[in-house]
Amino acid sequence: MDRSRVALLVLLAILLVAPLALDRYLLSVMILILYFAFVGQAWNIMMGFCGQLSLGHALYVGLGAYTAAALFQHFGVVPWIGMVVAVAVCVAAASFIGWLAFRFGIGGTYFALLTIAFAEFTRIGFDHFDWVGASGGFFLKVAQQGSTDLLNLRGGPLMFYYLALALTAAAFLLSAWLLRGRLGFYFRAIRDNEEAARASGIDTFRYKMVAVQISAGLTALAGVFFAFYYNNLFPEQIFNMGRSIEIILAPIIGGVGTLFGPVLGAAVLTLLSEGINEGLAMVGHEIPGAKQILYGIALGLAIMFMPHGIWPAIANRLGFRRGGEGGDD
Predict the structure, then answer these.
(1) Is residue 253 part of a domain?
(2) DSSP per-residue string spanning 9-53
């Protein structure tokens, strides 16, 4: 067994027993890390593997969250069924955006702008959508309980921690499976040189659509998790451009196109954010935009000194074998 797999198993073992040594606050921090690792993996499939830049991925978080929450609130549909509907809604939305872009040759920067536009249109629409609270917010009527109700996703942080861990592990395994199969080969061919891939007989339209659909479907699950963990949704919060930037920062800093990159990036950024908040609380001063400024500094330093991300640099130092995805596992 190579060292990267051993490291993965050790990390999983640590995460499984971590709640035994964590208080409620640290457990909430770990949940945030796992959430951003999961949604970073979802975005990484679309951009890191297939080269399709989305800057409006908050669209799928919001659609997934509102779909499952509305079904639960208005019709009593359990979240597990709501997840299926949420995934279908987000895959349909991604299919429309992908068809619109790829059928008419919209790519690169213009595709990224298109994703931003759809996220903004949706935010404005939900701001006036009274059925889900409009700009006043949408609140789930059932509060988190002391006991665990997994069927309705009602429970304390421990339940959500293990749910987030399961989602992140599943996304990691799916990403690894994609990269080592035919789909991963096609994705990387399109990412590296789309014209050459098309000339080789690869149906680039079809496989770009598949990447977009998989990414959107996974991100929908993150939205459902978000809704039932926080129990409130605001269009300005969940569809905001800043939410999309948060999604993409983890894989960019950790290593785009790698498997461990989104996980490491999520850990670094979340711990940095919490450290900033704790530091400001200790000095008793609030500095507007402090977190965003330090995020920007972290991103700039990562690009300057580790242009391929933190994980590839660490993996090379530790001698982990190179993965087939064009980066380190």
Answers:
(1) no
(2) HHHHHHHHHGGGG--HHHHHHHHHHHHHHHHHHHHHIIIIIT---
